[in-house]
Design goal:
Layout: H1 2-11, E1 15-19, H2 22-30, E2 34-38, H3 48-57
Parallel strand pairs: 1-2
Length: 58
C-alpha cells in the first residue's frame, strides 16, 4: 500500500516553499517549478538583559 502513495507523491506536481536562500528559489522558478519564497533569517542573539526588556515590550 505504501508504494501506491509514494508513486502518487512523485507523480504529482512539485510545489515548493523556499525559506532562506533566494538563489535556490530563483533556480526553481527558472525550471518552471511552482514556488514561493519566504525571506527569513534567525533572530539575532541578544544579551539576556536586553532580551528581557524586549520581551516586556512585546
Amino acid at each position: 500500500m505504501k508504494e501506491g502513495k509514494t508513486l502518487k507523491l512523485f507523480r504529482s506536481e512539485l510545489k515548493v516553499i523556499n525559506v532562506g536562500l533566494e538563489t535556490f528559489y530563483e533556480a526553481l522558478k527558472e525550471q518552471g517549478v511552482a514556488a514561493i519564497h519566504v525571506s527569513w533569517q534567525p533572530p539575532p542573539k541578544l544579551e539576556k538583559e536586553l532580551r528581557d526588556v524586549l520581551d516586556k515590550l512585546i
